[in-house]
Amino acid sequence: MKKCLKFQVRSMLKVHLTLGFFVIVYLISLSRWLKDFQTRQLDLYSIDDIQQLLAKLQFLSGPTLGVTGNLTSHADLHFKTSLLKEDCHRAPVTNIVYIRTHKTGSTTLCNIINRYGYLRNLSFMLDENFRNGRNFYMNISLAFQRNTLLRPLRTSVQDGSTRPLYNMTTLHTQYDRNVIAKFMVPNARYITSLRDPATQFESAFAHYKLHHVFGKEKHKLISKPIEDSIAEWLKKPKFYLDKLKRTAKLRDSEEQWLHLYARNGQINDLGFEAKHHGDLKRVSEYIDSLDKEFDLVLITEYFDESLLILKKQFCWEVEDILYISENQRLNEAKTSAISQSLRDSIRKWNSADFQLYQHFNRTLWQKIKKYGPQFKEDLSNFRKRLKDVLHNCTKGQVTTGRKFFRRTVYTKKRNLPDYCIMLVKTKDQIVLKIREKQLGNSINYN
Ligand SMILES: *[C@@H]1O[C@H](CO)[C@@H](O)[C@H](O)[C@H]1NC(C)=O
Ligand SMILES: *[C@@H]1O[C@H](CO)[C@@H](O)[C@H](O)[C@H]1NC(C)=O
Ligand SMILES: *[C@@H]1O[C@H](CO)[C@@H](O)[C@H](O)[C@H]1NC(C)=O
Ligand SMILES: *[C@@H]1O[C@H](CO)[C@@H](O)[C@H](O)[C@H]1NC(C)=O
Ligand SMILES: *[C@@H]1O[C@H](CO)[C@@H](O)[C@H](O)[C@H]1NC(C)=O
Ligand SMILES: *[C@@H]1O[C@H](CO)[C@@H](O)[C@H](O)[C@H]1NC(C)=O
Q: Is residue 328 lining ligand 5, measured as CB closer than 6 Å?
């Protein structure tokens, strides 16, 4: 009898434990889903539910993202400038294609250009249904064929049969001059940004979790620092790359693109096919053609310097290039632990990217030299302005995320001065506002 009771208690305990387990698993998945919702869902709109999503974003972006007031304020449309005008006698450049390379810190530059275009009512190439490229590329021709490109501002449905012409493009699309040029205002300038492959590869490796390809080795390595995973990859890089390609074929998801970021991801983003990456002569020739076709290549390691060059080349004002970084990984989460020899091996594995990087690092510094002795002072003033922006628009930084995803984000002030309002917006918020404007345009005419 006693034994039977004991048995009953034990089996009831088992049932409860099992139930408890499933409840916990359920709660974890639910919280993951909710977390993903903010980052993922916001990229997937159609005309039908745009209003609904707008309402959701307003709700989501309230206190957590630090945006005060509603999404369309007076100050958004009339960007007040309180600083000296740049002494530039040409008209500013307003038509820009920014080819975004992955994991080069492109979000900040993207925000700068999006903000510039938004405030001046410029039209952006955007797709109404699809995510506008994140891990993968948006196919512009396909979007046009399917009639899913948002119409430029001040155009009507009747113009629908002709090709739309845009002022700006900041989406993740693989560089293909012939296709992009067809959809851009003819005198558009082309820019991109590059980063030393030693750090860009590390960032891509962490972001795309390439260590998953190790399979059963995975659990052994996952708890170790990223440099150990990279060292493991570099022991048999071709083997792991092939494995990544094979597993990619089985998946009908973004993961099928992962292998593109496992070697020479930057030159691939710029349209140079992976099968030619080993051919040094072709790489050189391709770099030469990019040099002719691109008006400016920014270098992540010298971002502020690059922005000053952009400002001068495009006749912009200093307000136009101010920024607050959205997502900065902390230095200790970055490459400090990567030894010089590992650095060299990474550059060797990504040799086409390294060649590309060195070339455009050189051309940037040539431009800086040409800028003249004023450069140093301009840079120091610009950095002072950036500090003021942080001081005036944010309450300071907080650290978030775990391990190699540790990063700083800024908490934003309430009751922001007007000039901060656009500066504190996240990428998703700015893109949403651009969408809203271009969709509003469509709705008016329908
Ligand atoms: C948005 O803000 C403006 C100015 O602050 C205000 O006039 C307007 O009523 C607000 N709109 C909504 C929908 O809250
Ligand atoms: C942009 O468009 C809005 C709405 O039509 C208008 O009020 C504003 O003056 C325009 N801004 C510029 C810089 O053209
Ligand atoms: C993009 O779509 C066009 C039209 O359907 C197709 O011809 C082209 O091959 C596609 N490009 C890529 C890179 O998939
Ligand atoms: C923006 O693009 C349109 C074509 O859609 C063009 O007519 C207009 O001149 C461009 N605006 C600027 C400021 O470059
Ligand atoms: C980039 O150029 C700068 C200035 O010439 C130089 O100090 C730096 O070493 C270069 N970086 C690489 C990785 O070549
Ligand atoms: C920003 O703050 C600084 C002090 O850090 C102040 O001197 C400056 O006037 C402020 N700038 C603007 C545009 O409000």
A: no
Q: Which residue has the tokens 């030299």?
A: 369
Please tell me the distance from the alpha carbon of residue 337 to that of residue 227, in angstroms, as a whole number. 7
Residues 330-370: tens digit of each pLDDT: 444 554 568 999 999 999 999 999 999 999 999 999 999 99
Q: What would the two tokens of residue 236 be?
A: 């048999």
Q: Tokens 């030693």 appear where? A: 198
CB 333 within 8 A of CB 405: yes
**Is residue 264 lining ligand 4, measured as CB closer than 6 Å?**
no
- 90, 96, 102, 105: CA torsion to nearest 10: 40
Give the residue from 252, 249, 273 showing the smallest Cα distance to 263.
273
**pTM exceeds 0.85:** no
Ligand 6 binding pocket (C-beta < 6 A) is 82, 388, 391-392, 417, 419
Strand duo 296-299 + 394-400: pairing: unpaired
- Ligand number with the minimum distance to the CA of 188: 4
| The CA-based dihedral angle spanning residues 409, 382, 190, 171, taken in that order and rounded to the nearest 10 degrees | 20
